[in-house]
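As described in the Methods, two query proteins were run sequentially through the folding procedure within a single session, without resetting any intermediate state between them. The first query and its resulting structure tokens are shown here.
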Amino acid sequence: MPSTVLQFPPSDPGLLAWSLNFKDLITAAPTTYGLTAGDATAYGTVHTAFATALAACDPAVRNKTAVATKNAAKATLKNAATLLANKVYSTAAVTNAQKIELGIPPRNAPSPIPAPALAPVIEVQSVNAWTVKIRLKDAASGSRRGKPPGVSGASVFSYVGPAVPTDISAWKFEGNVGRTTVDVVFNESLASGTRVWLTAFWFNGRKQSGPACPPVGTHLQGGGVQLAA
């Protein structure tokens, strides 16, 4: 369980009022919040020390020593409250309503990143000998060149042949890439003009994949250089 960073009231009187409510509730029924009577007693001591130090900072009597004592007591109180809040958060039986009553807001559950909903768009940028340079684009944004939100990378596949294969196992896996510009290198034994196809799908950080894009075809040049049509 990660450590909690509580948002305490910004003013000293506000903090004292918050602490008093916290102290009274955990003292009345410590086990209800996953705490012990000893936890409540120890916090009561810390609360009293802060209240006493704050009272000594009355404008009519305050001095540098009193302010320093109050600031030290304030820091101790915040640390003690944070430690107890972590115990409360780690107790599954404590409801969100009880946490709100204590003045410690419920933690927001992280929202899982879903699998990509759309396929990428493949743009063939050039053909240089047996290397086809492609760029993957976000289909939702039209001309955007970067990855969509929540996407970690793409899986790229190739096929050599005059028409798109009907058997998915005929595709060759070219690798997983984190960038959007990719060089796909074909076998140098392939003749100039050989028809090749490329497809790809996005995946998120949990390796959940989205749909594959429609295959895009081009021709190898076997030593020549051209922009793909």
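Immediately afterward, the second query was submitted; its sequence and tokens are:
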Amino acid sequence: MAKKAAEVVCENPLGPELFRFLKDLKGHNDREWFQANKARYETEARNPVLQLIGGFEGPLAAISRHFNADPRPMGGSLFRIYRDTRFSKDKTPYKTHLGVNFRHRAEGAGGVHGPGFYLHLEPGECFAGGGLWHPDPEALFKVSRAFTNADVLAPDFPQRLAEACREAAPLVAFLCKALELPF
């Protein structure tokens, strides 16, 4: 008898060497060390996480078929290990964690700025969640309503304000629930 999609489980390819590598990288975060240990990064960290991503397609589809578990090493769900140091005071060249973003499949969904699920792997600091990361203005303003000065001064402004709040209520309720706050 075939398993239902909700019952699909992938095997966990991650082992303790993932955290050993990330801990070592944190202690030796320079290009020379990383180049000498790049094969170790690939076999102990990157490749097992890519296997996890590939195996997670079924469980993710059971949650929603609109999200993508893309195991490609570049351009897929795994964020790159290299840090962008151009505008940062911290010039260490590598991230000391691995980040995975299961993005929405729809074209125009916003990529990393659109809705999605996120997995953060860091020794002692692992977590998973869902939502938006730095939403772009277009997405941000879809949970808001603009008012002109004249709208604000109009006699029916309190009703317009109440309507805008009612439209945003499902999102606010979700956020309150996620933060264990009453709504």
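The chain is about 40% helix and 10% strand. We note this only descriptively and draw no conclusion about the first query from it.
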